[in-house]
What does this fold into?
Amino acid sequence: MTKRRWRHLDTSQNSTFIEADVPRVECKEHGIHSVGVSWAEEKSRFTILFEWLVMWIALQSRGVSRGLARKKKEPDDRSIKLLEM
Ligand SMILES: [Zn+2]
It folds into this structure.
């Protein structure tokens, strides 16, 4: 058994970790390695849900910055009038 720890989604704004004793096995293909767990990718230190959240936040912030960049290029009539005042 190997004690492993994964960063999971926050619980009530507190950092949450999952710890588990994971059995080690020996197979002909990979040698000695830990058994896979259903909540995380192999060798990852984060749960799948945590990784999805990080990706979602990254995609959202990319969309926001693209939207802001578009706004800077194409000012609407109100901002042009304010600039002319
Ligand atoms: Zn194997």
About this structure: The mean pLDDT is 86. The first strand starts at residue 2 and ends at 11. Residues 27, 29-30, 33 surround zinc ion (CB under 6 Å). The chain has two helices and four strands.
